Amino acid sequence: MVFLPSATSATSAADVGLKRSHVDYSRYLSAEARSRLPNPIKSIWKAAQVKPGTINMGNGDPHHTLYPISEVNFVVPSIDEHDPVQSWRSGTGEQNIISSYKDELCALSLRTAFAYGAGAGLKDVRDALADLNDRIHSPPNHTVSLSLGNADALTKCFRLLGDPGDSFLCEEFTFSAMTNAALPLGIEWVPIRMDNNGLVPSDLERILSSWDEAKQGKRPHVLYTIPCSQNPTGSTLSLERRQQIYQIAHDWDIIILEDDPYFFLQYDLGMSQSTIQQYGHTRAMAEVLPRSFLSMDYDGRVMRLDSFSKIVAPGMRLGWVTSNSYFADKLDMLTDSSSQHPHGMGQAFVAELLGSNGWGVDGFMKWILSLCNEYQRRRDLFMDVFRQKVATSGFASAEVPQSGMFVWIKSGPTTNTADLMDELFRKLLNNGLVMMPASTFAIADRTGTMGSHINDRVNFFRATFVGTDETIRNGLATFGRTLEEFFL
Amino acid sequence: MVFLPSATSATSAADVGLKRSHVDYSRYLSAEARSRLPNPIKSIWKAAQVKPGTINMGNGDPHHTLYPISEVNFVVPSIDEHDPVQSWRSGTGEQNIISSYKDELCALSLRTAFAYGAGAGLKDVRDALADLNDRIHSPPNHTVSLSLGNADALTKCFRLLGDPGDSFLCEEFTFSAMTNAALPLGIEWVPIRMDNNGLVPSDLERILSSWDEAKQGKRPHVLYTIPCSQNPTGSTLSLERRQQIYQIAHDWDIIILEDDPYFFLQYDLGMSQSTIQQYGHTRAMAEVLPRSFLSMDYDGRVMRLDSFSKIVAPGMRLGWVTSNSYFADKLDMLTDSSSQHPHGMGQAFVAELLGSNGWGVDGFMKWILSLCNEYQRRRDLFMDVFRQKVATSGFASAEVPQSGMFVWIKSGPTTNTADLMDELFRKLLNNGLVMMPASTFAIADRTGTMGSHINDRVNFFRATFVGTDETIRNGLATFGRTLEEFFL
Question: Is Transferase found in the keyword set (chains A, B) (predicted)?
Answer without folding.
Answer: yes
